[in-house]
Design brief:
Elements: H1 2-17, H2 23-32, H3 36-58, E1 66-70, H4 77-93, E2 97-101, H5 108-115, E3 123-128, H6 129-138, H7 146-149, E4 150-159, E5 161-165, H8 174-183, E6 189-192, H9 198-210, E7 215-218, H10 222-231, E8 236-240, H11 241-249, E9 254-258, H12 273-276, E10 288-295, H13 300-313, H14 317-324, E11 328-330, H15 335-356
Helix pairs in contact: 1-3, 4-13, 6-15
Length: about 350
């Protein structure tokens, strides 16, 4: 590009230099039209246009690091997913994608950081479905609207959950847990990673469908919940498979059911929601999902470029194997498809929320 600009400039200046220098010839030409100043102005304007094209091309997106906001602590399921996809996006788009953890307040800290960012594609958020559809579906007091404030870019992973109990609890399936809860309403406790998070809402839905009660204890993340179930400070929890499976396999927790209507490879042999035979529990699938969003107002071509990079990344056998080992299931779709999916899930949780009446 640069050599072409230089060549064009040399041609223009050569043509100008070869203009007649004989005074009479120059006078004769100028008597008809005095093109000299006009031609020089044209040449300079043309050069300015040509030169301005070069730096624009050099700044093609992304030309600097992209921050990837995560509303959970390092080591959480969403954080693990973020670091896996960030590595692939860095390779695909030839620029660093840097994970920035902003945990707490139901991902609200990360969301506020995203909302205050420029809509230029250099601040994105890898968000769990709890912040995108579940929490907004049941609450009306949130300082954001996922439809108004986010630009859907791409779904990334579906995340399966599992219902677990402390091994000392005399329950080996959902039916036995329900029986136990009915005998002692409100006596047992369950933990979640925060009010409005997927494991909170999932448990409240289960309690509503079975007419039972438990005491809710909110935490800041899955790992803390899991540790207290193991220690016996909590009786029950819904955890992500990536968090729960090592503890289940070591006998430190007991799995009652995977929150899926079909078998999940990582949890082969565990009961599913279908085995529980409780009408309405199928709404827990997916337990949650992880998607990539940007601030509202991002350009369509930039969204498309990032979406294509995400979808290409998900084709990697290495990434697929790594994700399967953590209980993630890849989800690939267009920005429009992801937006439609979010809309359907949001409507589902609004309907559920109207019945749960969670504040």
């Amino acid at each position: 590009m640069k050599s072409w600009i230089i060549g064009a400039w040399r041609t223009l200046t050569r043509n100008n230099a070869e203009a007649p220098t004989n005074k009479s010839a120059r006078r004769s030409r100028n008597d008809e039209h005095d093109w000299g100043p006009a031609m020089l102005a044209f040449e300079m304007a043309a050069l300015g246009v040509l030169m301005s094209a070069f730096p624009v091309r050099a700044q093609e997106y992304p030309s600097r690091p992209v921050r990837l906001l995560v509303g959970f602590a390092p080591g959480s399921a969403t954080d693990i997913a973020a670091r896996a996809i960030a590595e692939r996006l860095s390779d695909q788009l030839k620029a660093p994608f840097i994970v920035e953890n902003k945990p707490g307040a139901g991902s609200l800290i990360a969301i506020q950081a995203l909302k205050s960012s420029q809509a230029d594609g250099y601040s994105l958020m890898l968000s769990a479905g709890s912040a995108l559809v579940q929490n907004p579906g049941i609450r009306r007091d949130l300082p954001y609207d996922p439809v108004r404030d986010f630009a859907p870019i791409a779904p990334v992973f579906k995340l399966h959950g599992v219902l677990v109990v402390n091994p000392g609890l005399p329950a080996h399936n959902i039916a036995q847990l329900v029986e136990l809860l009915k005998k002692s309403p409100g006596k047992l406790s369950y933990g979640s990673s925060g009010i409005g998070m997927a494991n909170h809402l999932g448990m409240e839905l289960l309690l509503a469908k079975t007419g039972t009660e438990m005491t809710h204890v909110p935490y800041k993340g899955d790992n803390q919940v899991a540790a207290d179930v193991v220690a016996g400070r909590l009786d029950v929890a819904i955890e992500t498979l990536s968090t729960a499976m090592p503890l289940i396999q070591s006998g430190k927790q007991r799995a009652l059911a995977v929150l899926s209507t079909r078998a999940v490879p990582m949890a082969a042999g565990l009961p599913t929601l279908g085995d529980a035979a409780i009408p309405g529990l199928e709404a827990l699938e997916p337990f949650t999902f992880v998607g990539l969003v940007g601030p509202a107002g991002m350009s369509a071509d930039r969204i498309k470029k990032i979406n294509e990079a995400v979808n290409e990344s998900l084709k990697s056998p290495q990434l697929a194997s790594r994700l399967a080992g953590m209980g993630f299931e890849p989800m690939a779709d267009s920005p429009e498809g992801f937006g439609s999916y979010m809309g359907l899930e949001l409507a589902k949780w609004r309907e559920i929320g109207s019945r749960l009446r969670i504040q």
